Structures are given as structure tokens and as C-alpha cells.
Backbone:
């Protein structure tokens, strides 16, 4: 059946989302996700010929702010919800292979 | 292998020069450049951009990724991005939007980066880069889009990682080129030209030390063998933050890939792209990850941000802020002012310097003299003061006057340097300062003639050497010249002294 999410796809998506799934869960989610996709496939019945893809659901654009400074939170407030902190930083588990960077 | 790499890294220039004749391959490089925009505040919130502030002092609920917050676009950042794209000859589509790119490091706490995927704010441009051997080369620009920078992960505070989000949300322009560069030198030239452009436009400080520009080259080789071309797998080198590292990493990758090809015969295929880091200490690339499916960013449109429409009116308004670009200006200084490529390059290194020079020439300064004063004294002083040259107390009008005074023989070139320095530091009128400092040189031929006669009378031996054209004639002539200048207290115009001295000596032959 078209759109069916097989177990290898579930494992791949889980890996991308950094989720660890047991074998039971993989087969359970495979069935559930396939059901969801099948349901959404109903939309394919609509004729979308000549309809522009929608980038945003609001009919609004160019919402800007001026480049003017607003006060930041102090470091104490910024870190108030942090479970752990170190020298004004958010303390997090050691990042092993840091491939970060925008 | 090590020997070859060391040799290349020690001297990438030599490697480039010999590339065509001795290397059995062509280097192919495309570049991604991230440029920090010099707005006052972040891309989507009003936190002030600051460098070197205490950790997490420039954050708010938006850039901390708190639930329930909404990002709002910084209009200046969008305009800076469009202005840069225009300078890179890009098409600016009338419609552009924002997407979320999945991200798994704590330096972006939302777990995604706001970026642009399929509808970037610009595409299909080009940049001219100056080549070492002269002339220019056109490199195609694939696209330039806006996104937000991540914060900083710190690994040095203990057996854990620590996160500083001051930088998170900084407006970042990502510029992507086509794989049109064929040597480490060309890549460096592009990076430097781009730095000059963003500084001229005033859209970025382009300060490498502060991480305002970061580079990610994609490198591979086309190896010709037996009438067939083999392409090596592409490698991406991440996060290079100096021109030197950029140039050397490409030279290193080229040699490494060639060696690897000879050993494994592996060629470019879907999915065998690899990511490398650069080890600045050992000057080598280090494998970070084999690019497999981990590179699925799962982009989707950001529902929190509405699209941007760039109408013709707004676009023209932004285009109106365009200045003459550095390479065009450099070429103009060569063709219209007769400067050397080198001098024109130095003057157009900073917009303030270039405009200062331009203004002085418009006021009638001889270009070469103005250039010498500005580059030899002005830039040195500006550098010492840590300011652009237009922040010194000297004005283009002063520079034009000084150049004119040299031209008229009122002061020597050396005296002009002294005066430039004094006026740059204390201000003041060039002519008044020259008088005050006793730097006006005499061009009064009657006065000089008297001095020449006195010296000829005093220095019989030297005069004889010149008149009889002995082996010492040339040296003796210089000596006599020096004596006259000395007698004048350094104020006689050397040109006129030489003229009168020659006349007198020739008459004695």
C-alpha cells in the first residue's frame, strides 16, 4: 500500500529524532504511522491543479521590528529555570563529538 | 605522505603556482561563508549584539527558546542581507520565507535553527575576484540567505559542557558559491574580496578575530588518468575562521584526497561525502563524520514567522544605499588615477581610506603623492590608533594641500610625512605648521646660487673630481649636493640645488 511506513523507516526517523525504540515499539509505531499516513492520503483526492503551495496560513507578510535594543534578562533570570549551572553558563551533559555550529 | 603535506602546508603558494605543471589533478572548491551582520540587535529579538560580554547576559525569552515566545524579524538585518545580495549580483525574488532546520546541540535551545530552505532571499549571483597572476575571475554565487547563529558550547569548565547563549540569534548571512574555484589561492581571494565588500557596504565588521566570518569549503579533485576523469569524494571542512586556515586546509585536503585515491581508487558517489574539522595546531584536517543519513535536517516552514515580500519600491530604496564596490573602485584608481594595482588595493582595503583618498584627489591632490602620504603615514597612524583614517584629525583638504606643497617644491616629501603625522595627531593648517616647524624649503634660485658658489669655493678637491670626470666624479657630485643642502639648514629645494650645481660644474669643464 502506498504511504505505508515500514519498520526501517520508523528506525530511521527515530534515529533522526534521537529516540531509542524497542522492537515492540518499532512495530507498534509502524502500524500507527501507516494508519495516519493512510488517513492523510485522503487529501490526495482533492484537485490542487493550479493552486500555489501555501507558505503560511495567515494572509500577512513583512512583520518587522526596528533594530533597537531592548533590555535583556540578567544572567540570574536567564538561568533561573536551568536545572544546573556553572559560572553563569547552562550546565549540560558533556557533548562528545561537538558538531555544533550554525 | 607526511613530507609532501608538510611541504604543501608550509608553502601553499608554491603549490598553487606549480599546480598546472606538476599536479595530475584539478582542485574543485565551492565555498559556504557565514557572515555576522552588524545590526545592533539580534535577528528575532531586541537583545543587543555584543562580543566578549559575560556569559548569558545578552539573552531574553525569545533567544533562550522559552515556550510561548514569538520571534519578530529585524528589518535592518533583512535590508543588510538584501544589500549584500545585490552587491553579489543576485536575483532578489519578491517572495521569501523562513524554515526550521532540526538541530540537536544545546547552543540553540529551540532544537531547531530558523533558516531559509527552498525560497531564499536571493539566488543566482556572481562575484569577481582578483587573481594573483593579474586579472579577475568570475565565481558564481548559488544563493545567499538569512538565518540565526547558534550560541557557544564551552567544554573547558569541568567534566561537562556549558552553554553561553549571548551569540544565539545573531543575524547570519549564509553565502553559497558554485564549485568554481580551482586553487587554495582563489578561495582565499574570494574570502578576502567578500570581506572587503561587506565592510564597504557597512553590513558587517568582517572581523575574523571576533568570528564575524566563518568558512566551509567543499573540496574534491578531478584526476585525469588514461584519458578518463576520476572525481574524488567531496569533503566539507567545517568552521574555518581565518584566511590562513582556509587556504591551508584546501591545500592539505587536495594532497590527502590524491593520496587516498591512489590507495583506494574511491570515487564520488551519492552519500560518500565526508565532514572534516581543521586542526590548527597540527595544520591538518581531521575526520568528523561520514555523511550518511544523519544529514537529514527535516526542514519545514516556520509557522511562527510570516513571509517577506520584497516589492520594487523597497528594493529600489535598498539599492539606493549601494556604494561603489571595492574592486570597481580599485580598477578606477588604476585607470583614472594612474596608481599601481598594489597601491589601489591598499587604498581600497577599507572604505574610509578609499573615500579619504578620493576626496583629496577631487580637491586637486596629485594621486601618487596623496597615495604615498596616506598609505605610508596615514594607515600607520590609523592602525596605531585603532581607528579608520577618517577619524584622525587630518582632513582630505589637508592631504590635498600637503600634496600640493610637495608638488610646488615648498616642502620635501620627507617634510610632508612629518607634517601629516603632526596634523593627524594635533590638527592644524599645513602651511602654518610647515612654517612653524621650519620645514619650508627654499626654491629661491638667487639664494641657492650663493650657497652653491660658496660650496664650490670651499670644496676644491670634489669640484676637481667632477670637472675632470675622475672615477670619483659621481660620488663627488653627491657630496657637493649634500654640502649645499646642509648649508641651507636642510631647506633648499634639492631639485633646484641639483639644477644650479650642474650648470655651474658643467660650465667649469
Residues:
Amino acid at each position: 500500500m502506498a504511504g505505508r511506513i515500514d519498520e526501517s523507516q520508523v528506525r530511521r526517523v527515530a534515529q533522526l529524532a534521537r529516540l531509542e525504540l524497542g522492537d515492540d515499539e518499532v512495530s507498534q509505531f509502524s502500524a500507527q504511522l501507516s494508519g495516519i499516513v493512510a488517513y492523510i492520503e485522503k487529501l490526495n483526492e482533492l484537485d490542487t491543479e493550479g493552486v500555489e503551495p501555501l507558505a503560511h496560513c495567515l494572509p500577512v507578510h513583512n512583520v518587522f521590528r526596528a533594530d533597537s535594543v531592548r533590555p535583556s534578562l540578567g544572567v540570574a533570570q536567564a538561568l533561573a529555570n536551568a536545572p544546573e549551572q556553572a559560572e553563569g553558563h547552562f550546565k549540560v551533559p558533556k557533548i562528545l563529538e561537538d558538531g555544533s555550529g550554525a | 605522505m607526511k613530507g609532501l603535506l608538510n611541504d604543501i602546508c608550509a608553502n601553499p603558494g608554491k603549490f598553487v603556482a606549480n599546480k598546472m605543471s606538476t599536479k595530475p589533478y584539478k582542485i574543485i572548491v565551492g565555498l559556504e561563508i557565514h557572515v555576522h551582520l552588524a545590526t545592533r540587535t539580534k535577528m528575532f529579538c531586541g537583545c543587543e549584539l555584543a562580543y566578549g560580554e559575560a556569559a548569558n547576559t545578552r539573552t531574553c525569552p525569545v533567544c533562550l527558546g522559552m515556550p510561548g515566545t514569538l520571534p519578530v524579524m529585524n528589518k535592518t538585518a533583512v535590508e543588510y542581507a538584501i544589500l549584500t545580495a545585490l552587491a553579489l549580483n543576485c536575483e532578489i525574488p519578491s517572495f521569501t520565507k523562513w524554515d526550521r532546520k532540526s538541530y540537536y546541540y544545546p547552543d540553540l535551545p529551540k532544537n531547531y535553527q530558523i533558516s531559509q530552505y527552498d525560497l531564499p532571499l536571493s539566488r543566482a549571483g556572481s562575484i569577481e575576484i582578483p587573481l594573483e597572476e593579474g586579472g579577475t575571475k568570475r565565481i558564481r554565487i548559488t544563493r545567499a540567505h538569512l538565518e540565526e547563529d547558534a550560541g557557544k558550547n564551552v567544554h573547558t569548565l569541568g567534566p561537562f559542557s556549558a552553554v553561553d547563549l549571548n551569540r544565539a540569534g545573531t543575524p547570519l548571512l549564509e553565502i553559497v558559491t558554485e564549485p568554481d574555484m580551482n586553487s587554495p589561492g582563489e578561495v582565499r581571494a574570494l574570502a578576502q574580496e567578500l570581506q572587503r565588500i561587506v565592510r564597504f557596504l557597512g553590513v558587517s565588521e568582517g572581523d575574523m578575530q571576533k568570528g564575524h566570518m566563518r568558512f566551509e569549503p567543499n573540496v574534491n579533485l578531478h584526476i585525469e588518468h588514461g584519458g578518463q576523469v576520476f572525481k574524488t569524494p567531496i569533503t566539507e571542512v567545517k568552521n574555518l575562521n581565518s584566511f590562513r586556515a582556509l587556504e591551508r586546509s584546501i591545500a592539505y585536503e587536495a594532497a590527502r584526497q590524491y593520496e587516498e585515491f591512489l590507495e583506494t581508487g574511491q570515487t564520488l558517489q551519492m552519500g560518500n561525502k565526508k565532514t572534516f574539522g581543521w586542526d590548527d595546531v597540527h595544520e591538518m584536517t581531521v575526520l568528523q563524520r561520514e555523511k550518511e543519513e544523519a544529514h537529514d535536517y527535516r526542514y519545514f516552514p516556520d509557522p511562527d514567522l510570516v513571509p517577506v515580500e520584497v516589492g520594487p519600491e523597497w528594493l529600489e530604496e535598498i539599492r539606493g544605499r549601494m556604494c561603489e564596490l571595492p574592486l570597481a573602485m580599485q580598477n578606477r584608481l588604476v585607470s583614472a588615477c594612474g596608481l599601481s594595482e598594489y597601491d589601489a588595493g591598499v587604498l581600497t582595503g577599507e572604505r574610509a581610506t578609499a573615500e579619504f583618498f578620493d576626496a583629496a584627489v577631487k580637491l586637486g591632490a596629485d594621486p601618487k603623492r596623496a597615495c604615498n602620504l596616506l598609505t605610508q603615514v596615514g594607515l600607520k597612524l590609523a592602525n596605531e590608533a585603532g581607528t579608520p583614517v577618517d577619524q584622525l584629525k587630518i582632513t582630505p583638504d589637508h592631504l590635498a594641500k600637503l600634496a600640493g606643497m610637495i608638488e610646488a617644491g615648498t616642502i620635501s616629501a620627507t617634510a610632508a610625512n612629518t607634517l601629516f603625522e603632526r596634523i593627524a595627531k594635533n590638527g592644524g593648517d599645513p602651511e602654518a605648521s610647515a612654517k612653524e616647524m621650519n620645514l619650508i624649503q627654499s626654491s629661491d634660485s638667487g639664494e641657492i646660487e650663493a650657497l652653491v658658489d660658496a660650496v664650490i669655493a670651499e670644496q676644491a678637491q670634489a669640484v676637481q673630481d667632477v670637472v675632470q670626470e675622475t672615477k670619483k666624479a659621481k660620488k663627488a657630485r653627491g657630496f657637493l649636493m649634500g654640502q649645499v643642502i646642509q648649508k641651507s639648514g636642510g631647506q633648499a629645494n634639492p631639485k633646484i640645488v641639483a639644477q644650479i650645481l650642474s650648470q655651474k660644474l658643467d660650465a667649469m669643464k
